[in-house]
Amino acid sequence: MTRHLPTAHTRRALAAGAALLSGIAVLATAQPAMAGAAAHRPHRADYVALGDSYASAPLVPDQVDAFCLRSSNNYPSLLARSSAARPTDVTCSGATTAAMTAPQGTAAPQLDAVNRRTDLVTLTIGGNDIGFSTVLGTCARLSASDPAGAPCRAHLTGSGTDQVTESIAATAPKVAEVIRGIHRRAPHARIVVVGYPDLFPEDGVGCTSPSVPLAAGDFAYLRDKEKELNSMLARQARRGGARYVDTYAPTIGHDLCAPAGERWIEPFVPQGPAAPLHPNAQGERAMAAAVQRVLTHHH
Prior knowledge:
Blueprint: H1 8-16, E1 27-29, E2 40-42, E3 46-51, H2 53-56, E4 63-65, E5 70-71, H3 75-81, E6 86-89, E7 120-124, H4 132-142, H5 151-157, H6 163-185, E8 190-194, H7 218-239, E9 243-245, H8 281-297
Parallel strand pairs: 3-6, 3-7, 7-8, 8-9
Antiparallel strand pairs: 1-2, 4-5
Helix pairs in contact: 1-8, 3-8, 6-7
């Protein structure tokens, strides 16, 4: 898939975000020079990016870390380039909240990158804790059994409780502990919890096809589960003294059912350079723009 230039909306957000991390930078005043003139030198904000594959952007060009499948055009990189920030990007595909404090394969615990000098932290986490990729695989497998119905919803709620809702509730305290861990390591840092973009059509009308093997009735169910996940992240951010960034609303209409060129989330069978069911380059730009808007308006 050819790369698309940012939309005018995104370019405006990127321009507004030029002050993004510099807006949180502390201006350090140098000692008066011998001649008596005071010099003001801006402190480059130390920015640490934490999170999973929605932050690392697997298969989006250019890949700069073979294990974590991290892109040089993921949203943390775009944020850092639009400012004078000094970035440390430890985002990693497959990360759960456990990867914040324990190694993930060859990757060190992500919170090791956060310290008292850190000015800003972005965090995208939770999707792997609730096993959303496994849920989606289950939904794809069950779709043929009732293409016009909602076999996945029936399977996941058949016990009388919703398994995904239970997983989201169980993940909430884990996210809260990650936020507390960031505060402990970087007491003066701004913490931004970045939610997940819109994967499924907001109106619940699906697009069942070989590249999107989901039953018609499961689109609305999966949309609602993603919204539940984002709502939980927003609550934990608010309770933990962090800022939440809604990337869902700005990406409505650019879900995996949208046509090529308008699609910011790739389907089960990607049509462009991105992992299945993940943001492509346009999606990462949209996420960066959403974070920039929040930071610019609340610095």
